[in-house]
Amino acid sequence: MTFETVIGLEVHAELATNSKIFCGCSTQFGGAPNTHVCPVCTGMPGSLPVFNRMVADFAIRAGLALNCGISRYTKFDRKNYFYPDLPKAYQVSQLYLPICRDGWLDIEAGGATKRIGIHEIHMEEDAGKLIHDPWEDCSLIDYNRCGVPLIEIVSEADFRSADEAIAYLEKLREILLYLGVCDCKMQEGSMRADINLSVRPAGSPELGTRTEMKNMNSFKAIHRAVIYEAQRQAELIEAGGRVVQETRRWDDNKDASFAMRTKENAQDYRYFPEPDLLPLDIDDEWLARIKDTMPELAEDKRRRYIGEMGVTEYDAAMLLAAKPLSDLFEQTSAICKNPKETANLIIGELMRLLNDTGTLPEDLSIDATRLSDLILLIQDGVINRNVGKTVLEELFRNGTDPRQYIEERGLAMIRDGGFIEAAVDEAIKANGKSVEDYRSGKEKAFGFLVGQIMKALKGKGDPQIVNRILREKLSE
Amino acid sequence: MKIDDKLIGYLENLSRLTLTAREKEQAKTDLTGIIEYMAKLGELDTEGLSALSHPFAVVNSFREDEVTQSYERGQILANAPVKSEEYFRAPKTVE
Amino acid sequence: MEIRDMTALEMGRLIKERKLGCAEAATAILDAISSADGELNAYISVQKDRATASALKVQARLDAGEALSPLAGVPVSIKDNICTKDVPTTCGSKMLEDFKPPYDATVVEKLAAAGAVPVGKLNMDEFAMGGSTETSYFGATKNPWDTRRVPGGSSGGAAAAVAAGEAAYAIASDTGGSIRQPCSFCGVSGIKPTYGSVSRYGLVAYASSLDQIGPIGKDIRDCAAALQILSGPDGRDSTSVMERPFDFSGSFTGDVKDMTIGLPGNYLSDGIDPDVRQAVTQAAKTFESLGARVEEFTMPMMEYAVPAYYIIACAEAGSNLSRYDGIKYGYRGGNAGSLADVYLSSRSEGFGIEVKRRIMLGSFVLSSGYYDAYYHKALQVRGLIRDAFNQAFQKYDMILSPVAPTAAYELGENITDPLKMYLGDIYTVSVNLAGLPAVAVPCGFGQSAMPVGMQLIGREFSEPVLVRAADAFQQNTDWHKRRCGK
Question: What ranges make up the beta strands (E) of C67-107?
Fold first, then answer.
């Protein structure tokens, strides 16, 4: 029997607001335990939620980018269940009237474009973190994350393979990143996915029983989990068994999924409208404001870089791989008006520096004006490229002002014809063998001589002038 | 409707409560009467009417995205029955 | 006149005129508590040192010429479900017996700013669930008029303390009649304000869409003065919809000639004690004699208000009380083995039977399979009730009605019959469902010489008009001046 895999994905993205969804505590990652908390996000008696409107703005942005209809009237509901990471014993979420609905996202998979339906996007609050204390064999509870705003993006069950799922997740991640609504750091948990998967005999119109695997936080794990679970279910059915509707835990080390013992399956969440919060009425003005301030998506940037700025497809892909790089590219080329050179420098030297020092793009802090200055200095021939590399490294490590640095160290290119001629004469005199080699056709010797001349000029010679004078002298 | 042991057990579980045997018997009687009384609403035709979660139809109460001073950890942990210096503590959760 | 027999405004005036010191006023109330509360049990806790320190601070502010409210320096007593920073806030429950909030409720902050002197926390039905203050973990409060009888609930401590002179005035809460009914049972005045006019931030939630904080005092003027301090916007409560505090400057003219008052005949027919009917009918006649127009009408939806109320209240309450799990604060149960054990033992041992009953009812009406027929239905019925009021207010400025079908009954009489208790709320719950304001004032005495009260229900934010009517009534009657002699 051949089976078809049917997958739906629920992606939780922590929104990049400064404060939490219902209180003013900071959303910053990594604070000391229980230091970004207050009576509201720890569910103390008498506390009440007040909605952070930026959360709706971000949710609407995501909805627009994902081609959703935006609900003009949307409200919150309580999802009731007991768990130590949930201080109020209910999560404020949206069941009945989510903020965005009926969208889609086109993905490229298996050489074809496929449209994935997006059922809805809703807003909700994140829960705290449980840490297992092995000494006392108990759970330690940190509520810093409690109340961080989330959007949950629910897809239709349109995926038929692990590759499609990953293509979707990668594109979704890029969109959310470029919208500025989420920093999408899966390793920090700011983006997580739940996989709903079932199998059915190929051609069958009915859906099989599905299982759920929650809080997957790496694309690789998701890919493996989809393949494993599809196979597990298919084998189970072929052997005459039945798939149990349940939540399963994915163990990446064991490369397998396991049934969870908690009774997540039979949960009655008793959803009801949240009485402590008022509904949102999103009018034309609100929508227009969001539309007008939508950040440019990666796809549109790609088009602009290639079409208008003369950047190659390859280079565009490199720049857009990390938003901080594309931001730097845009800011810098806007000032120096030389996108090609800017792209070259960022993709070449700068990325090399990032790799060598193990710096992440998001931790890069280079002043665009200074980078632009450096580019102009190269462009205008004030310094040559080699010196440019040195200055860039200085700018990268210490934020040094390029013009100042060049002046202080006298790194400006030497263009004085007489000065260069003297160095050329000297090099010819000292390297008779190379001169012979060159005259007998070995072009490599020319490069060697250039190197010697540059050395004498302390690397600051204008390459064009050096080359011209050397060729002239050698052909005499 | 009849409130039987099964339903009481279900409600106990949803509510994380354990009633004593006597409380259970009493609950069956009390809840039967009360729920029957609540069912009186079934006499009304409410087809098409909106469900009011609030007495008034007010919308859009929110705040700006500004970070405010969080509380001191000690204040938030002060009332916890079992805690460490940094965390609340609960028996471990079984996955 | 003894200080404890004065109204809060009288005390405030004497304080302002330097004829009475803040410390003296505080001491008088604290002494009254010492002598009477052993018997009445109106207070769960008293903060003598804080009160004294607070009184001195307010005195200093007054001496420095600061312009404070008319109630500055007057001691205030607070129902124990309103958070007071670092002072136990127990909600009458074992679950929160040792709970000290790290913050003050908004109303407590407002009172402090106005120069009030908090002296103690008042007894109440556990988590405000009850109509007699008999479900309190700390024992029942006695009605000062007859200590064999209940003071009403859930703000029984507040009403009893004011009636007995153990409190100058009190701040309490009303979800289904919890201010008005104890006022009626104890012969004092109270206001349940329009939903959203007083911040709920810091009020330990019972039913979020029904709860409101309000004042209890010896007369309606005391209540109005307190409500002026309490009311107004609060950015910490999303449901707080009032732009500025109430203005009662036009409410004491004694003039009711412009008013048309509706009297629901169906409220006064079956199921009501003849004494209560008599007192309320007499009150209607008093209004007529003062120049108001009083007209009988039928108020529809009467028999559906209580079931709708209990469905909504229990649903919201069950959810609001889920946070009490023995982990973050509050009582931790004896069986602390597994996580499930902690939840079950903390909650089962920490909550009383009425609270458990309502939590389970809440789970029931929200559970899948029953949600549509019960909870959703009740929310729709709420709309019908609100419409019924809107209809009535097209003809009438306010509705005059009884508060409870009886005067105060004996301790232990109804506590084993929850449904009977619930039915006692028949005149009050519809007001909370519709979010409307109501003032309760004494209007007579019933069997066994127990006080009887009436309520005036108005349109949203019509408190100034309601107060004017109630004040006119009190200018021309003396029910509110009778003292229980405790």
Answer: 75-79
Kindly report the three-state secondary structure assignment for every residue of C173-198: EECCCCCHHHHHHHCCEEEECCCCCE
* Number of residues assigned to chain A: 476
Reply yes or no on whether C57 is catalytic. Answer: no
- pLDDT digits over B10-68, tens only? 999 999 999 999 999 999 999 999 999 999 999 999 999 999 999 998 999 999 999 99
Residues 6+ apart with CB under 8 A from C344: B16, B17, B18, C333, C335
Strand partners, A3: A201
CA–CA gap between residue A49 and residue A39 (Å, rounded): 10
Rounded to a whole number of angstroms, the distance from the CA of B48 to the nearest CA of chain C is: 9
Specify whether C345 is catalytic. Answer: no
Sign of CA dihedral A352, A357, A360, A361: negative
Residues C196 and A77: their CA atoms lie apart, in Å, by 20
C453 beta partners: C442
Residues within 8 A of A (CB atoms), B 53-92 only = 53-54, 58-71, 73, 76-77, 84, 86-92
Which residues partner with C170 through β-bridges?
C77, C216
Question: Residue B65 is nearest to which of A19, A38, A262, comparing CB atoms?
Answer: A19
How far is residue C24's CA from residue C56's CA, in Å, rounded to a whole number? 10
ipTM confidence:
0.96
Q: What is the pLDDT of residue A415?
A: 81
What is this structure's pTM?
0.91
State how far the Cα of C427 lies from the Cα of C430, in Å rounded to an integer.
Answer: 7
Residues in chain C with pLDDT values less than 70: 486
Identity of the amino acid at B84: S
Total residue count of chain C as it appears in this document: 486
**C66-C67-C69 Cα angle (round to 5):** 130
- B and C: number of Cβ contacts within 8 A: 172
Residue C286, classed as helix, strand or coil, is: helix
Q: Quick one: closest CA in B to C238, which residue?
A: B61
CB-nearest to C322 from A84, A90, A277 is A90
**Close Cβ partners of A408 (under 8 Å, ≥ 6 residues apart):** none
Q: Which of C178, C199, C346, C401 is catalytic?
A: C178
What SS3 class is residue A140? strand
Active site residue C184: no
> What percentage of chain A reaches a pLDDT higher than 70?
99
Distance CA A204, CA A207 (A): 8
pLDDT digits (tens, 9 = 90+) for A120-146: 999 999 999 999 998 888 999 999 999
**Could you tell me where the DSSP H helices lie in A279-358?**
284-292, 298-309, 313-320, 323-336, 339-345, 351-357
With H, G, I as helix, E, B as strand and everything else as coil, classify residue A258. strand
Of C202, C207, C366, the CB nearest to A46: C202
